[in-house]
Structures are given as structure tokens and as C-alpha cells.
Write a structure and sequence with these properties.
The complex is a heterodimer of chains A (about 180) and B (about 200). Chain A is α+β, with helices and mostly antiparallel strands. Chain A is about 40% helix and about 35% strand. The chains are: A alpha+beta (about 180), B alpha+beta (about 200).
Chain lengths: ~180, ~200
């Protein structure tokens, strides 16, 4: 009987230790403040892409001017992301006056963009980190497709519009979003 | 046998006590929480939406004096870049530009046309360009950027700068940041930690 009591005591101690360990480890995983706020950072990067277009338009409307501004913007976001261990890439399409579309493929792989207007499709494959300017037929609505990212959007072609695909990834998280402005 | 079981009991009891001490003591100390981070992030976004993000880190510090949760130390940093643009048109000759020093300098090349165009930095070749398009080349500090051969392009030299207020970070750190693309692109960041 004495021995049985001792076994019960040891069993209680072991089980208690396991329960406490589990509770403590679970509670600390729920409140890890050192976790990087990649989600907020991603949201901010997504919003800033269209701001960069507005900023470029304040000082000039030529495709070359806007292209350089966007390269500067995306390169900056990439530099800051790299310092935080985040991979960044973006695909940025801007509908410009004069039936032109600027497509910037700020990603390490080729990307194809299709723009349909009035039943005519204009397609262009752009190499990694390169850009292209598409000349389009007359029409009020553009349908933009980026097949590699499963993106398809219709845009009012009578004003300056942007479609931005943003991608970020870390060791444990992945974010991707397409925004139209 | 009885002594052995008693020793085993003592070892388990000591282990349990040690485990409790090691796990509960850090939990009892004040740590920055995810809620604290959300407060800082929301305030940064509010300032950005209002177009009132300060230009430099000391301005950010001033704006956050009354916002940072009690018991937390904090510091801010603003990362931005400045640019210089050069039009390069060479035909069998050379054109040289001097680049200022900064923590990270790179040039973005927007090439209209090029044929065996050599890009040199302080007399060392860092790239050869044979086709139009976009190229980016990292520059190793201060010196002369020279284009030699035949080509037509715009070279935009960018210097990334970081403005950080003093603050010795210790222990668990949280941070909030926003990317602002009005008047150029920059990142404004606030880091907070317990003292």
C-alpha cells in the first residue's frame, strides 16, 4: 500500500509537470510580441504602390517618367524588405493617356500580360525586371489579364488606372494581393 | 527500494520547481504585447493618412511621445533615398560622372540602346551592356562612374540613407512601420522595447 501511494505521488508530479509545460508553451505562443508585423508592412506596401503613381503624375505624365518613378519605388520596397528577411516582388500595370499601358514586371521571372479592348487582344511577354509599353486600339474598357498570377480585371480606359499585384514571403508567411485603383 | 523511490520523488519535485521558476518568471515581467504593436501601427497609419508623417526620426519621436504605451522605451528610424540622374550618350568614347558616398549606392540604368557598352567604377568594369532595358548595378562607395563604348541611356544613381534616433534596444522588441510614397518613397518605423 505504501508503495502504491508513492507511485500515485510520482504519477501526479509527472502529469502535473506535463500539463504546466503545455499550458505555458501555448500561452507564450499566443502572445509573441517579437513576431514581425509582416502583415501590416505588406498592407502598407500595397497602398504605397498606387501612391507612387500619383506622386509620379504630380511631376510629369510621360510613360518614361512614370516608369522610372515606379522602378525607384519598387526597388526601395525591395531593399527595405530584404533588410527584414522578406522576399518582395510586384507586377504593376498603369493605364496612361493616349491609349497606352505601362507594364512593369518587378519580379525575377518572365510575365505575360494580355489587354483586350473592343474585341482585340494585345499580348506582351516581359522579361524579369523589365517593362513594356503597350499601344492599344480605341475603346472605353480594358480587360487586363496576367495569366501567371490568375489576374483578370476590367478597367475604365478613359482615365488613369492602376493594377498592382504585390507578393511578399518570409520563412513562415506568404502574402499576395491584387489591387485596382 | 524505498530510498530509491524517495530520491526519484525528490528529483521530480526539484525539476518541477525549476520548470515553474524558469517559465513563470519571464511571464511575470512586463513585455511589449501585440496590442502595443497595434497601437503604434494604427498611429503611424493615421499620421500617414493625414499627410502628417514627420520628415525625420526626431520628428517621429516627438509625435510619439504621448502615444507609446507606458513602460516601453522606443526609437524611430526613417529610411529614404536621394537620386541623381545623368543622361549618357556615348559613341565610341567615354562619359564619366562622380558618385557621392553613402551607406548603399546603386545605379539604375534605363538603356535605350547599347553595343558593348562598358560600365566602369573607379577604373574597374562592373557591367557590360549589349541590349536595351532596365539594369541595376551596385556601386561600391565613392568614385567615378564611367561609361565607355557606344550607348544611349539614363543613369539614376540612388543613395539609401537611414536616419535613426538613439536608443539601446534590449529584450523583446516590437516594431511598426509604414511605407510612404508621397514625395518619393520612404519607410517610417517605430521600435519599442521594455527597459
Amino acid at each position: 500500500m505504501d508503495r502504491l501511494g508513492q507511485f500515485f505521488a510520482i504519477g501526479a508530479v509527472v502529469i502535473g509537470s506535463i500539463i504546466i509545460s503545455v499550458v505555458v508553451s501555448l500561452s507564450s505562443s499566443f502572445s509573441d510580441p517579437s513576431q514581425t508585423s509582416t502583415s501590416s508592412y505588406f498592407d502598407s506596401a500595397v497602398g504605397s504602390a498606387s501612391e507612387a503613381v500619383e506622386d509620379a503624375l504630380d511631376t510629369g505624365k510621360s510613360p518614361e517618367h512614370i516608369k522610372k518613378r515606379l522602378y525607384g519605388h519598387h526597388r526601395f520596397v525591395k531593399v527595405v524588405s530584404q533588410r527584414r528577411g522578406i522576399e518582395y516582388r510586384a507586377k504593376h500595370l498603369v493605364v496612361l493617356p493616349g491609349r497606352k499601358v505601362l507594364y512593369l514586371n518587378f519580379a525575377p521571372e518572365k510575365s505575360t500580360v494580355n489587354v483586350s479592348v473592343s474585341g482585340i487582344e494585345v499580348s506582351k511577354t516581359v522579361n524579369a525586371s523589365q517593362s513594356a509599353i503597350l499601344a492599344l486600339p480605341q475603346g472605353d474598357t480594358y480587360t487586363v489579364e496576367i495569366p501567371g498570377e490568375d489576374i483578370s480585371r476590367s478597367l475604365d480606359a478613359t482615365q488613369i488606372r492602376t493594377v498592382v499585384f504585390t507578393y511578399m514571403s518570409t520563412d513562415s508567411e506568404l502574402f499576395r494581393r491584387t489591387t485596382v485603383n | 527500494m524505498k530510498a530509491f523511490v524517495a530520491t526519484l520523488e525528490a528529483v521530480f519535485a526539484s525539476s518541477l520547481l525549476l520548470l515553474l521558476t524558469l517559465t513563470l518568471v519571464p511571464l511575470l515581467s512586463q513585455e511589449p504585447s501585440a496590442g502595443d504593436r497595434d497601437v503604434l501601427q494604427d498611429d503611424l497609419v493615421t499620421l500617414q493618412d493625414a499627410g502628417e508623417l514627420p520628415e525625420n526620426s526626431s520628428g517621429v519621436d516627438s509625435a510619439f511621445t504621448d502615444i507609446v504605451p507606458e513602460g516601453l522605451n522606443y526609437r524611430s528610424s526613417v529610411i529614404s533615398y536621394s537620386s541623381s540622374s545623368y543622361r549618357i550618350d556615348v559613341s565610341g568614347g567615354t562619359q564619366s560622372e562622380t558618385v557621392r558616398q553613402a551607406s548603399l549606392v546603386e545605379t539604375q540604368l534605363f538603356v535605350d540602346s547599347a553595343s558593348s557598352l562598358s560600365v566602369r567604377f573607379n577604373d574597374s568594369e562592373i557591367a557590360t551592356i549589349d541590349s536595351p532595358g532596365y539594369r541595376r548595378v551596385t556601386l561600391p562607395g565613392y568614385g567615378d562612374l564611367t561609361f565607355e563604348g557606344t550607348g544611349s541611356l539614363d543613369a539614376v544613381v540612388r543613395r539609401y540613407t537611414s536616419n535613426t534616433t538613439a536608443g539601446q534596444i534590449s529584450g523583446t522588441t516590437l516594431f511598426a512601420s509604414v511605407i510612404d510614397a508621397r514625395n518619393g518613397t520612404r519607410e517610417v518605423r517605430v521600435e519599442a522595447w521594455t527597459g
